Amino acid sequence: MSTIEFKGLVKKYRDVTAVDDLWAEAKPGRITGFLGPNGAGKSTALRCLLGLANPTSGESLIGGRPYSGIAHPLQEVGAVLDSSGFNGSLTARQNLKIICAASGIDYKRINEVLELVELGNVKGKRTKGFSLGMRQRLSLAVALLGDPQVMVLDEPANGLDPLGIVWLRKFLRDLADQGRTILVSSHQLAEMQHTVDDVIIINHGKLVVKGTIAEVTKGKSLEEAFMNLVVGA
């Protein structure tokens, strides 16, 4: 089972504690919203999870292993942290082909994932002409190349128009219904209420609350519950 676990995770930068004793998890077959205000420590926790930062203490695990212990990471974990890392002079397909070549993934997968994110009709266009929303979809295509069981997404709705946001909601639900573990960091609380099954809220690096969306909101909107829990505290 590819559960994501934060087990007493602590990350300090000199005198600043970005993540402070975080215990939480995201489970297979469910979409977990990872929420908090700017500077709460969400991005730092995700960087530790994906091996981009070393924890000061504690650990973050995917399927019981640290990211560094996963032999073929792209085939097990798909991540979207930034949509700006593409070579603008190359087409969407060419960008994905480079990643496939480096990761040992069959090129046949390229057309499949481009169709999944609805970019099949622009696969031959250079990405320098892509809008932010199109680059975000291309980042999702990269995350799906290895057909991973775990998806870690930081603000995946950035740049998407209202139709794109509705598409993303269904897209994530379909992935979760396939048994995948989906962890989504976002500031879009109204949309998260219609998307997630479970919620993890942190502030100042500390866990504020975790549970199902119903347990956390208690009949209120997610935005109201968030404001009460974070701002009210």
Unreliable residue runs: none
**What is the correct CATH architecture?**
3-Layer(aba) Sandwich
Total count of domains:
1
Would you tell me which CATH topology applies? Rossmann fold
Helix segment tally: 9
| CATH homologous superfamily (4th level) name | P-loop containing nucleotide triphosphate hydrolases
Please trace the helix and strand order, writing H or E for each element: EEEHEHEHHHEHEHEEHH
Helicity level: 25-40%
CATH class: Alpha Beta
Taking the sheet with the most strands, its summary is: 6 strands, mixed
Overall geometry: globular
Structural class: alpha/beta
Q: What's the Cα radius of gyration? A: 18 Å
Task: Tell me what portion of residues adopts beta-strand conformation.
Answer: 25-35%
Going across the biggest sheet, name each strand in turn.
Answer: 5-6-7-3-8-9
Distance between the termini: 35 Å
Please provide the count of β strands. 9
